[in-house]
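call fold(seq) -> tokens
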Amino acid sequence: MLSISKLCCVRQQQQFHYQLEVNPGEVVALLGASGCGKSTLLELIAGFVPASGGSLSWLGEDLLGLPIKQRPVTSLFQQHNLFHHLSIEQNIALGLSPSLKLNAQQREQLSQIANNLGIAGLLNKRPDQVSGGQQQRAALARCLVRQQPILLLDEPFSALDPMLRLECLELVKQLAEEWQLAVIMVTHQWQDAQRVAERVAFIEAGTTRQFASPAELLTSPSNAHIARYLACS
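ret:
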């Protein structure tokens, strides 16, 4: 389990406090207004922002003392950062080796993940030769080849049309269950959280205000702000 207990930091003179957990195979959505601190939590977990207190652990192992490269974490952002002068295959291979020199086992691993994501036939194409949804699948494949158990998603599908976004979200949910990934997904879309998240952490003013199932959040919001947010979403 990814355990986040009283995890806090100070950023631009604002205090942030987080309390939640994510089980292997589970998708947890981070919901809340822009600027409330959703992305800051992902950066804390990945190690890009130093914590000022609290604890962060995976399967009982403390992560706060680990440098970024040693944390069992991979991240996917809204900007997929694919290199357009490289093929889809080469872009995915960067997740395994910056030199793009893969051994036979790594090539088989890449091929299997590309097949699972439905992009095996696109490996020789460049990113600008495929659709936006296919580009995001390639970026997701680059994350998955690293075989890290914690996957952080910072609105990676928000620029896609509704059908493609739903397709990618359902794929993430399926992969989380099959590969027992602990997934934290930042979203502004309440409908997306309802579709794929087992639990939702509502972040308000840098604090985890409520951590509950989508059904409980909808029927028993802990304050008026959460009720208004859900009603407007």
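The chain has eight helices and ten strands.
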